[in-house]
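Page 47, continued from p. 46.
Same chain as before, 297 aa.
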Amino acid sequence: MEVWVSNRAISSLVWGLLVFAQVAATFPSYAASEASSEAVNPTTRSGVGDVPDLPALPPGKATLLGGTINTVDHLRDRLVLQLFGRGRTVVVLFDDRTRVYLDGKMAALDDLKRGDRIYADTVLDGTKVFARNIRVATSSPLGQSNGQVVAFEPAKSELTFRDKLSPVARRMRLTSDTVILQRDRPALPSELRPGTLVTLAFFTGSDGQAILHQINILASPGSRFAFSGRVEHLDLRRGLLVILDPRDNKSYEVSFGPAVRGLTRDIQEGIDVTVYASFDGRRYEAESIELTSPSSR
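Result:
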């Protein structure tokens, strides 16, 4: 059975030992003993109190997970999240490096409880999912969507957005609490240009309008990307390549022309490739293709 003890638990244990040692020092019968004098020895206490600093946050691309907390274990610093609309759960770790926001305001890890609807900015720590930020909204239910920016009006702080599953554009409002991220770094509203691919977390205000909680910018017109993974589908007639990227377990459609560099007969379904592409606001267009696994031919 795996036993996992958090840095917070270790810190609490050490603090308790120090308090016990200081209290014991006030009683003459204990102070007279050799064992007690060791317990209150400043050098010994200093050594015990040296708790290693927390390591740096795990690197990597952040993934936004939304759902309801099924269980939360504050002793082992972990929670089980029931993902919105997916019918499955995922274990999410947290510790003192994790920041918690309750309705946009800083809160404590101890405020997390079963039944909370949250959005967590997560990264992989080895094979485990770790939360950098956890945002809890108690005033209104949260929703999630992904699609493309149609327009952004800074004067009104209003974003016009089209979900990839709906042809109807929708207007959403930004506030001073709206978080905008691009490749896990803070971004400015000016980056919300028409054609930009985004994922959104939002809630409904008292007036019925959607209020944006967080915006993740996935791709801006003119940006370049490298997709590495298995070829799931290849259509030479249409010039379409579908790649499953194992880094985020998502499939990407990439268009290509007959003159794209590296396009050979060895490119076929089931092999691994790296595709360098640019995003033009409508689609990913391949610039070159590199074979990374041998062909079965």
